[in-house]
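seq/struct pair 1
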Amino acid sequence: MSLSSFFSSFLPVVHADAPEEKEVKEEQQPAEEQPAEEESADEPQQEEAEEEEPEDPLPALQEECAQTAKCAPLAKHFQHCEEKVHAGQGYKGEDCVEEFYHMMHCVNGCVAPKLFAKLK
């Protein structure tokens, strides 16, 4: 007995009627004209979606702040820890979560005022 059949024994199954309306519209249009019209209708929507979405400034600001004099030593320490762990030189079960936390705390402190100034 599958999980779906188990639940369907307790709950009634409901089917949506929306696909039938699409089938009626598709049947009314000639088969040759249909793909061309659908493609032309989709293109403006895709272009609008691409134009409306602005570029996210956060990754660039994070990279910039990670290289500042205040955060660079923490980033270097995190990078060294990662290299050590991936090379198998660290102790068993070692991870670099603490180093990552300290680095990101510094980076986020630097990024926050710049980011919110750009978003206003």
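seq/struct pair 2
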Amino acid sequence: MSNLSKLNVLMCGTGEYTTGWTGSGASTSDKKIGVVGLTMFDLRRLGKIGKLGMVGVNGGKFPAIRHHLQENIANVYKNMDTSFEEYPKGGNIDPEAYKDAINKLSPGDAVIVFTPDSTHYPISMYAIERGIHVLITKPATKLLSHHSELIAAAKKHNVVCFVEHHKRFDPVYSDAKARAQELGEFNFFNAWMSQPKSQLETFRAWAGKDSDISYYLSSHHIDICCWILQDKAVPTRVVASAATGIATEEPYNCVPQTEDTITLLVDWQSIKSPAHKGTAVYTASWTAPLKAGIHSAQHWYYMGSKGDINVDQARRGYDITVDETGKTWYNPFYMKYSPSETGHFDGQRGYGYISIEKFIDAAREVNAGVAKPSDYDNHGYPTISNTVLTTAILNAGRISLDEKRAVGIKKSGSEWILE
């Protein structure tokens, strides 16, 4: 559909996932040059994106960010323009700079939100109410009530609203999802995801304050489980448990309430068979060992009444050993950073890239009148409507930890609520 108009996009957030830049310099993770910014610059090169903007809180960071992008993207990939309009301007500090930036947009433009969890809802709502399409990083919101409000607002204003659950576009995960449909009634799911303790340096500004490791990491596999079980089973009860003591000590010194590892135990009820109940265990940690050769340890196990599935997303039979650093497992299926034979960026097939491109394509199609936002609810995409149970489970887990009790999930009319 080459006749679709170019989409103007505002990137909200200037951190690791957008630019690869952290407060202390270039990221040391597997996202050294970011994901969102790089994808936007490439999609602009390919003719899908028009104007680009980027908004943060501290405008004083932009000179360093621009230098980082020039050195590591523009100077590395052929014909890659890394220019963008910045907000706030003049090196100012403004926590509400996103409002000024969004006010410069027009209905039908788009916003991509990669900011601390507690800011997702106000930024997204501000954009949606002005007719702007929105892609929100996971978790969409911290509160189930806020998620429901975004569903209603997106419908009212006829805009596309996706949650950036890129795991849905991993070919292994999407294939496993399809095969799980043939394995009968759901019985058990177990997921583990962790990142090394060094990430606490990156996240110290908000870790334990604005959000927790369950919201940040377990959102990946909770969404995959909800996706697999869509129209098969629903969550009914959540109990959470947490380990502590590492993040709050030297050298990380996170706030006292910061958990190291969080586990959610979730009961699921089959929709079709009252006799079939399932159990899911979702665990996430940001205090995993350093130098394990992987940035994110991540695997999951699914068992149905007729078979099971094992997925190890961290180690895919591709590792490289270097004298100075030892063995490292790479995942070019997520983002391929090595250039093509012609010197151009060559990561268009990575599921990190595809996840964002799918949103850009959907917004352009809606703007052109060839699709409606509701169409994507039926395509298995992580729309704001299709991801509501992920937020329900995460929110219930947080309440369970804070109030030391089990939390129920049920549907009241057309909305999901917590008890």
